[in-house]
Amino acid sequence: MSLSIEILAGGRAKGAPETVLALAYLERAREAGRSLGFSTFGLREADERKESAFAFEGLGVALDEHGKSLGSVAFAQTLAAWRDAGEPRVTFVIGGSDGLPDSVRTRARTTIALGVQTWPHLLVRTMLAEQLYRAVTILAGHPYHRA
After folding, report:
1. Residue ranges of the alpha helices (H) in the chain?
2. Where exactly are the structural domains of the chain?
């Protein structure tokens, strides 16, 4: 069984440098993760003005400053546990400039934070994409993550 991972990000920023960098990290994760049981890594943008645009399938993970903070190794282990448990799809949901609607946080199975600070939503997609790539390299034993 393989795990498909998607970032569902509020806001439109197709050509923004942050999105270009996020897509580069997701491509790296896709290449490195194939042999580890991670089938896809994708990014989809949601119209943050429409709550219905935040619809997701599979295990939902809301990103919110009040969520659980995970170090990179713990994050990698969490992804591996979801893969090993047979989860077909994990969707990480990032709000737009006004954050996530309460209904999305309620539907999510878990909520994580990328620290206690509030980050711009464009940076969050890039930071999350990098952490997904880092997680795959940790699981592969690649030296990218130097603890």
Report:
1. 17-33, 72-84, 102-107, 121-140
2. 3-140
